[in-house]
Amino acid sequence: MTGLARDAAAFKSALHKQDYTSWHSQPPGLQPPQSAAPPGEAEPSKKKKRPKSNVVFSQPADTGTGTNINTQLVYLVNQLKQNGNPMRLQDLAIITNTPVDTDKVLLEKFKGHDRVVHDPKTDLYSYRHDFNVRNKAALLTEIQRQTRKGGGLSVRTLKESWREAPQAIEELEKDGEVYVTRTLKDGQMRMVFWNEVKPTEEQGGMSVEKEFHDLWHGLEVPNDVDLLKALASEGLQATASAAPLLKGGMAKKKGKKSAPRQRQVRITNTHLKGTIDLSRDYVAPGK
User: Fold this and answer.
1) Distance in angstroms (rounded) separating the CA atoms of residues 190 and 4
2) pTM for the full model?
3) Which of 162, 161, 170, 207 is nearest to 189 (CA)?
4) What distance in Å separates the CA atoms of residue 247 and residue 79, rounded to the nearest whole number?
5) For residue 241, with 0-12 CB atoms within 10 Å meaning exposed, 13-18 middle and 19 or more buried, which class applies?
6) Which pLDDT value is given to residue 262?
7) Residue 178: which of 164, 163, 151, 196 has the closest Cα?
8) 59-95: string of b/e by CB count within 10 Å (b at 16+)?
9) For the range 87-90, what are the long-range contacts, defined as Cβ-Cβ under 8 Å and sequence gap of 24 or more?
C-alpha cells in the first residue's frame, strides 16, 4: 500500500506541474454526479411552448388619435360617418378623445371639411353622404334620377347613406319598380336600376313563363364540325374572318427597285445672271 500511495502522490505532483495554456489540452472539469430523483417525486415537465399570438408585427399598432391635428380630424369624420346621426361637439370630443371642443384650429378644420354639415340652430354635426335618402320614396326618386342619366346606383353607396336601403331595394324589386344586378359568387346585390317598363299586361314587362325558359335552355349548340357539315348540306358556307389591316398602310409591291428620282434644283441669285458665271470657281483678278 505504501508503494501505491507514493505513486499516486507523484502522479498528482506531475499533474499540477503540467501547462494548460491551450484550451485543447485543458481537462474537462469534474461534474458532480446527478443524484437520482426519489421514487416519490415526478420528473420535471418539459418546457411549455409559447402560445401563438395573432399580432401582425409588420403592421403599426393603433395607438389612438395621436397628437397630429390631421390624424384627429380623420378620427372625427370617421366617427361622424359611422354614427349616422347628428352629434354634439362635446360627444365627439369624448368618444374620439380629441380636443375638438377646446382646440380652435382643429374645430375650424372640422367645420370646413367637405363631409361635415353643421346646423347652427341645433349646434349639431352630421355627415354629408353622397345621397340624402331616408325613406323608400326618396330612394326610388334617386334611382330614377340616376337611371335617366344613363347609369345605376351602387347598393353599397346607398347603404352608407341609409342603412335600411338594402331592405327597401328588395321590396322595390318585388314590386317591379327596380332591376337589381347581383354577384355570381354569393348573390349579393351590386347595382340597382329603375324599371321603366312596369310589369302590366298593357305595357308588357311580364316575366317569361317557365315553359319558354325550359325550351330556351334546352337548345344545344352543335360543335364546329357538325355545324360546318350542316351548312355544307344546305349549300351554305361559314363566314370567313376579315383580313387584318396592315399597320404600315398599303404593302409595298415586290419587284425591281425604281431609280431614284432626280430632284430639280432651284437656281438662286438670278439677278447676277450675265455678269458673273456662277458655275465656275472664283478666281481673283491678276492671278
Assistant:
1) 101
2) 0.46
3) 170
4) 57
5) exposed
6) 73
7) 196
8) eeeeeebeeeeeebbebbbebbeeeeeebebeebbee
9) 87/124, 87/125, 87/126, 88/123, 88/124, 88/125, 89/123, 89/125
